[in-house]
Amino acid sequence: MSWRTIIPVAVAVCAVFAGCMRKEMRDVFTPVPNVVTADIQAGIERHIEEQIRLGEGHFRLPFGDRELRLNLVRVHTEYLSNLGPRSHFACVDMVDTEGDVYDVDFFLEGDPGLMTVTETIVHKINGQPLYTWEQKRDGTWHTVPVTGAPYHLLGVVTDRDAFEFVYRVILPELTDSAHMWLPMPATDAFQTVEVTAIKVPGEQCILEEPVHGNRVLFLELSPEHSNQAVEMRFLVQRIEKTAYVGSLSDDGKYLKPERLVPVNEEFRTIAEEVVEGKQGDLARARALYDYVICQMRYMKYGYGWGHGD
Question: Do 121 and 164 fall into the same domain?
């Protein structure tokens, strides 16, 4: 083969190789769009809205041997996460036609405005989790059934715990004078609270409620405080609160009826049925607690909620 033949062939090979390299380099260095939680929220809300349209008014989700017909209650914006390039996570509360509340986890892929859902899992039913998450040694996560799961996966801390609690909010646009009440955690037999910072606009004072001793930070605000931050920081040390013998002197105060908590024959009958056969105060108290948890629904959906009844 002569040099005249070799040189054109070599040039052609280099050109092909360079073209392949440019393609690979484009694939490797193609910029991934920046994703913020608002993008993930928009993506999951768009998906749910579309599925409700296709489901003739309900988000239809196979679950066990039945199909759930759900509607959106809220997106947990605090749990929206970017898991990696074009990989995202969202968690929402949905309510079915029977009034049960389902915590549903969604995994999404794609860029802002083009996200698609790749997996949908029911995480909780009426606040009761079906599984928790565990991280493997390789950094990946997998689900673990709640039954038999160790305490550290369930977020249970025994004996003692210490943490910083931060309350922070941005004020909305104020067109007139406004008042704001912020509850403040209190020190008691089971926790010690230290206030480390209070950074708030406007006039402020701490008020104490005379009956129960609860304290609130009271703010007097005006339009000039619009869009400013309100922040309180506390250091909290807690000890585990297990069953203990309470003071009998306070029983009457907490057992009296209130405007939205009536005491009548209907509730008395329910209570007697729930504790029937239970031995000891602790077992009876637990039975009443479990009954309330199973019967109550906490959901901001439909009409009539928000009145405390």
Answer: no
